[in-house]
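User: Could you check the structure of this?
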Amino acid sequence: MKKILLLTSRNNLKNKNCIKITNYLNKKSINYQHIDINIDIDEFKNIKYNTNSLILSFGGDGTALKAMKLGWKYKLDVLSFGPGRVGYLVRSLNEFNNLIDQWARDKYTFVKRFPIIQNEDLDFPAFNEVVIIKNSPTRLLDLSILTYDQKVDFRADGIIISTSLGSTAYNYSAGGPIVHNDIDSIIITPISPFTKFPRSIVVSRDTKLDITIKKNQNFAIQFDGSVEVEECINKNLTYKYGLSKKAIKIIGDDNNLKLDKFLNQILR
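Assistant: Sure, the predicted structure tokens are below.
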């Protein structure tokens, strides 16, 4: 039996656009359940769902990322809509009825999203970026990158390892390029480099990266904005990164770069 898991805040349930969503689901007799945005990812396993369930998020890009992480862990498809504000990862509600009808009839299309994985650990996917950043306010990080048997040393406040989808997030703010969603690539962008490191390097989806943080440094590692690692030890640490071969499915076939929305937002 098909079921929709509506991921949003309790306050959003009163939003007129969210009410349009639930009214349409009721009209189509589609079973749905509200899931609070603050749910812990491991607690989600207590929710009643099956392989035909769809995670439908309503909110901003942060809500969409949470939906993607839940979809990743529990092998569910994802569809994300915004409440009216400009969002890069969310769709317009004008598309809602058509996409839900297609999903209900099993006639839908989808695009795949491949996250960055650290040390082959599938429990911490990063659909936008992994950020290694200093915790000390005054000291730069001494880092090295090893890829294709070539090693480069540099000093910076940190480094961003971004997917194409995440190229318009922290990567862009740090001076990195905007890369089309269709191009499964990895973008390496330093944060305030002291040495003459290029603004960014774009490599293919099959590239493997070894990032080494030199000993006696205080740093954190963030996955899509959430701190998952904090270290300060007396030896060099090396982390391995690459795009996963596993993907999640996002309902709909629109994989176009939302360049107009993005630029209109940042230029206004």
